[in-house]
Amino acid sequence: MSKTKQDSIIDEDAPLPLSDEKGLLRFYYEGNRLPSPTGGFLMVLRVQPEDNGSGSILLECNSSSLRYRLNVNKATRTERTNVREMVDEGREPKCPRHVDQLLIRVKNDFLCPLCGVRFAKA
Ligand SMILES: [Zn+2]
Known about the structure:
By secondary structure, the chain is an alpha+beta fold. Helices cover 17% and strands 30% of the residues.
């Protein structure tokens, strides 16, 4: 079967990388607005869990409309242990990075809806 032009995915502008991911993540975890490199603020368009347990966040600048991708590190051993303890103690597991953000259960994993990071097996 030959593929026609119509089958090809429309190239939605690939998001740009961000230079100060650490600084932005700190703002993000604290629930603050994210300053955009081009001025204005970055709005969250989508939180995407990655296969390896990390997350990525698609952002759009509200002044330039440029899109950026913010990579979120996967869970550390300590974070995983902490979340595991909450689950084992029958408490609702919370994101170790976000304040008062409950993890959601997706299939067999607990992940943070704001980080996209997988913190424990359900
Ligand atoms: Zn989180």
